[in-house]
Amino acid sequence: PAQRALNLLRDLAYRATLYLPLMVMGVLALATYWLVSNAPTPLVPEPDAPLTHEPDYYMRGFALRNYDTRGALLSEMAGAELRHYPDTETLEVDQVRLESVRDGRVTRATAQRALTNADGSEVQLSGNAVVVRDGYTGAQGQSVPRLELRSEFLHAFLETERVQSHKPVVVVRGADQFSADSLSYDNLNRLVELKGRVKGVLSGAR
Fold first, then answer.
1. Which residues of 104-127 are buried (b: 16+ CB within 10 A; e: fewer)?
2. Separation in Å, CA 187 to CA 24, 96, 121, 169
3. DSSP tag of 203
4. Cα separation of 42 and 85, whole Å?
């Protein structure tokens, strides 16, 4: 019975995390596109002036929205402040709030800070990072429960489709909940690892 319960826990943990990292990467990729395409062009520094880790432009109290041809909201990103650092070619956003709507599925993400590199291939959410995909009805009429991922840190590698966290993570799928000391997800190979002290609470377990 113990081994059977352990196998069930592993199976549910896998299913619970299977699509969430894809959702995280999609939202973060969208946010990076907004940042790069909507931010003002920085001034070119003097050739002999060394670059320092000081922002060369800001955006404060901003909200960027993307609509489809019918005027329906596709995505939104808002934040308290955006900063561009020319020495590292990184963009940093405080109190970031993201929302994406695709085929009736709504995904939201919040964090105290978002950090992306110059080409948008890596994005980090840090400080009370929360990603939520609302529940919805699938194409076959099946009910897909709400899915939530919480951690102090999430690191998405968009080109290789990987999501990692070396911080404790909590995954909530419907009434089931799982926790672990760290997370590693490889979407290309469909591999997910919950490492460290893995715990699970299954609503239908006997």
1. ebebbbbbebbbbeeebebbbbbe
2. 12, 25, 15, 18
3. T
4. 10
Structure-block tokens of residue 163: 């999501």
118 to 24, 35, 87, 123, 151: CA distances (angstroms): 19, 10, 11, 10, 24
Phi–psi pair at 84, nearest 5 degrees: -110, 130
Tell me the pLDDT tens digit for each residue of 50-83. 667 788 888 899 887 888 888 888 878 789 998 8
Per the listing, tokens 């939201």 go with 108
User: Could you give the CA distance from residue 85 to residue 116 in angstroms, rounded to a whole number?
Assistant: 11
Q: Which of 178, 127, 126, 123 is nearest to 148 (CA)?
A: 178
Phi-psi region of 5 (alpha: psi -120 to 50; beta: other; left: phi over 0): alpha
Look at the block and give the residue holding tokens 């900063």: 83
Token pair for residue 143?
A: 């009910």
Predicted structure pTM score: 0.73
Neighbouring C-beta atoms of residue 137, cutoff 10 Å:
11
Helix (H) or strand (E) holding 13: helix 2-17
